[in-house]
């Protein structure tokens, strides 16, 4: 097949995926947009070698078939890179395809525009993307489609680009897809991100899930047969499918709960999608099907999830229950109507399709709240990104005002969050609350069903401590706004004191001098340092001592690392610096948040000045920074070393037996390559927990000692944990 035939076939596939109600005129407009984009991108190729036009075609197909968007969005998706990559302007697009298409293309182009030098490119581009919500939410949906196709074709990118794009996707785009109600896309983005960030773990879990599917296929059939008979005899038209948890969700559960694959009991879920009967409400039919299923199998009462009575904020509706199936196996059952299923899979587009005229949904309220946050003056892009992310994945509770109006808040929200949700000024002057007519402090965590009355005082002002217990982005944004002016004054004072001291000591006012202080106080941001100086938390005497002493890292200097430095985007030549010795004067430090040791999968980040900080790739702080500072990633790996020690901390749990602590300590003492810095054991109700700080040379030595401790009788679990700073 020739290249042109390949392009034509892709376009025909796009036409087949359009909505059935797409008119002949709309199809003609889409064809014109394709021909225009094809000509505009003529001769340009993607990194994979295929013609560039294949990317807009793929994005347009995702927009229509997987998100359910219409003609305007398909045209905008086909043209989304034209203004950025060619000489055509937004005005040209407007003249040819109308102002609505031009507006969406303009929004997509702004996301990739030139960013300020004082902030992260990724965070600023994300902030601009959210700003477009005020104009047209389709910009966001097409951007998600664009990211999905980029993730599907990520294999053709160099490794350091894969890590950067995967981190950004996991940190921003997967939660955003979740909030937009795009469950299937959210799951795929998470799995693809993990595939490139943790390839070995991904492959292992994926194989185990496939084996699990094969093992329980017969059990699944045995489980659903009685349900089929019951539903059919009650006149329901339906489909029943089985689905397993995604690779990423399994991995995340294993990480968070510190459990093995075999300890995850809700791997398999059964989804029932029914065609509703016209004479009965959908909600009633969901509960009727629930009743039919529980006539056959015993339910687990605490595992019922009712999202048909009150849908999630992203529009999701379903009834979930967990029942005991054959052979003592728990099964999760999801009950949805056809409409609910379309909303669950296609999110926002389907949600609006079914929404009644003038109806305001939780999703609409969420979008309005985001716009309010954006209206705050002086909000930096990174601040906005962190605040925005707070409300992306949050589980929800429903609480009521004194007059009975319902408000939706994230799980863990306090009375103060509720006050800010009602009105900014009510939040700013809040002194406490009455929950279910009982007086509580403003830090009181609310539960679903609570009725809340806020108490205020004209003399009250926001306090810094409030940030310790509020969880909503809205509350944090408004509280922070009060302190911004105060912080600016501290910043100016701190700069004056620092610069005067550096000048008095006769030191060069360079970033190297500043980094010496930042590293000593474990700070990554120079502004934080100036504020601490302005508050006099760091005195001039303290500063002088730090600036006079010689910086040294006795562990890092004995190691050699390989740093793969790439040129600017588009430069195919990589500059390699291999076997770079890390000595006391080098520009590299080991991150104190995760303490990577040789053998760990690591990544470097060059953010604050000249120092490259080396993190474990799985470190949560590293993931956050990689998503926010993608252009600051320095690919790095261990190459060789001398036998010097790195700190590692292990946690041991098991059955307490006489002398077990001494046996473990003796075992470690006999190891030539491992030395013990600290050991602490606690015993309660016949169970012991031990924390041991070790100095090891690399992960091989650590794994060896862990394996030997596992063999001690009574030991149930041994795991490496992060050291507390």
Radius of gyration using CA atoms only: 29 Å
Largest sheet: number of strands, sense, barrel closure:
6 strands, mixed
Mean pLDDT: 79
The amount of beta strand, in percent, is 15-25%
Distance linking N and C termini: 61 Å
Number of helices: 27
Broad shape: globular
How many beta-strand segments? 21
Report the uncertain regions: 113-120, 551-560, 565-586
Which percent range fits the helix content?
A: 40-55%
SSE-based structural type: alpha+beta
Quick recap:
By secondary structure, the chain is of the alpha+beta class.
Structure description:
The protein is built from 27 helices and 21 strands. Strands 1, 2, 3, 4, 5 and 6 form a six-stranded mixed β-sheet that branches. The protein is of the alpha+beta class. It is globular and about 75 Å long. Helix content is 47%, strand content 18%.
């Amino acid at each position: 097949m020739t290249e042109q035939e390949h392009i034509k076939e892709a376009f025909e596939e796009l036409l087949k995926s359009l909505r059935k109600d797409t008119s002949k005129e709309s199809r003609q407009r889409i064809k014109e947009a394709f021909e225009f984009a094809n000509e505009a991108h003529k001769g340009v190729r993607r990194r994979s070698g295929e013609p560039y036009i294949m990317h807009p075609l793929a994005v347009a197909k995702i927009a229509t078939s997987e998100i359910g968007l219409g003609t305007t969005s398909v045209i905008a998706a086909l043209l989304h890179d034209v203004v950025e990559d060619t000489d055509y302007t937004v005005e040209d697009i407007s003249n040819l395809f109308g102002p609505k298409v031009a507006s969406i293309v303009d929004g997509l182009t702004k996301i990739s525009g030139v960013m300020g030098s004082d902030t992260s490119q990724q965070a600023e581009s994300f902030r601009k993307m959210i700003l477009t919500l005020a104009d047209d939410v389709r910009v966001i949906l097409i951007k998600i489609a664009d990211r999905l196709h980029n993730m599907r074709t990520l294999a053709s990118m160099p490794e350091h680009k894969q890590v950067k794009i995967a981190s950004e996707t996991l940190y921003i785009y997967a939660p955003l897809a979740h909030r937009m109600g795009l469950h299937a896309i959210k799951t795929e983005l998470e799995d693809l991100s993990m595939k490139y960030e943790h390839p070995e773990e991904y492959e292992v879990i994926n194989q185990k899930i496939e084996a699990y599917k094969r093992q329980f296929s017969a059990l699944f059939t045995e489980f659903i047969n009685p349900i089929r008979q019951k539903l059919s005899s009650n006149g329901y038209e339906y489909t029943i499918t089985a689905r397993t948890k995604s690779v990423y969700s399994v991995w995340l559960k294993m990480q968070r709960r510190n459990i093995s694959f075999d300890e995850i009991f809700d791997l398999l879920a059964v989804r029932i999608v029914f065609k509703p009967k016209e004479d009965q409400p959908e909600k009633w039919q969901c509960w009727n099907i629930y009743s039919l299923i529980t006539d056959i199998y015993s339910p687990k009462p605490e595992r019922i999830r009712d999202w048909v009575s009150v849908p999630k904020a992203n529009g999701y509706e379903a009834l979930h229950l967990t029942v005991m199936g054959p052979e003592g196996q728990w099964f999760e059952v999801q009950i949805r109507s056809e409409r609910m299923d379309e909303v669950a899979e296609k999110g926002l587009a389907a949600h609006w399709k079914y929404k009644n005229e003038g109806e305001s949904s939780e999703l609409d309220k969420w979008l309005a709240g985001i716009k309010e946050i954006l209206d705050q003056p002086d909000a930096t892009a990174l601040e906005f990104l962190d605040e925005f992310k707070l409300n992306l994945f949050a589980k929800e509770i429903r609480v009521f005002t004194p007059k009975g109006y319902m408000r939706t808040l994230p799980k863990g929200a306090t009375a103060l969050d509720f006050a800010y949700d009602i009105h900014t000024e009510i939040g700013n002057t809040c002194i406490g609350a009455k929950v279910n007519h009982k007086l509580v402090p403003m830090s009181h965590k609310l539960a679903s069903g609570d009725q809340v009355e806020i108490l205020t005082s004209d003399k009250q002002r926001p306090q810094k401590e409030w940030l310790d217990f509020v969880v909503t982005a809205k509350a944090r944004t408004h509280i922070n706004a009060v302190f911004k002016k105060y912080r600016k004054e501290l910043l100016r004072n701190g700069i004056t004191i620092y610069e005067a001291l550096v000048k008095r000591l006769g030191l060069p006012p360079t970033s190297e001098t500043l980094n010496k202080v930042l590293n000593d106080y474990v700070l990554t941001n120079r502004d934080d340092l100036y504020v601490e100086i302005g508050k006099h938390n760091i005195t001039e005497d303290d500063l002088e001592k730090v600036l006079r002493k010689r910086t040294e890292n006795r562990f890092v200097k004995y190691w050699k690392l390989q740093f793969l430095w790439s040129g600017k985007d588009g430069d195919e030549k990589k500059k390699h610096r291999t076997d770079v010795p890390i000595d006391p004067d080098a520009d590299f430090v080991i991150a104190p948040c995760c303490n990577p040791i040789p053998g760990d999968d690591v990544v470097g980040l060059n953010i604050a000045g000249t120092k490259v900080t080396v993190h474990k790739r799985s470190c949560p702080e590293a993931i956050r920074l990689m998503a926010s500072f993608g252009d600051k990633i320095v690919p790095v790996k261990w190459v060789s070393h001398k036998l010097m020690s790195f700190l590692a901390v292990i946690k041991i749990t098991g059955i307490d037996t006489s002398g077990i602590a001494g046996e473990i300590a003796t075992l470690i003492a006999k190891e030539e390559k491992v030395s013990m810095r600290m050991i602490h054991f606690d015993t309660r109700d016949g169970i012991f927990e031990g924390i041991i700080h070790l100095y090891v040379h690399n992960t091989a030595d650590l794994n060896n000692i862990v394996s030997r401790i596992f063999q001690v009788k009574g030991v149930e679990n041994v795991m490496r944990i992060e050291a507390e700073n």
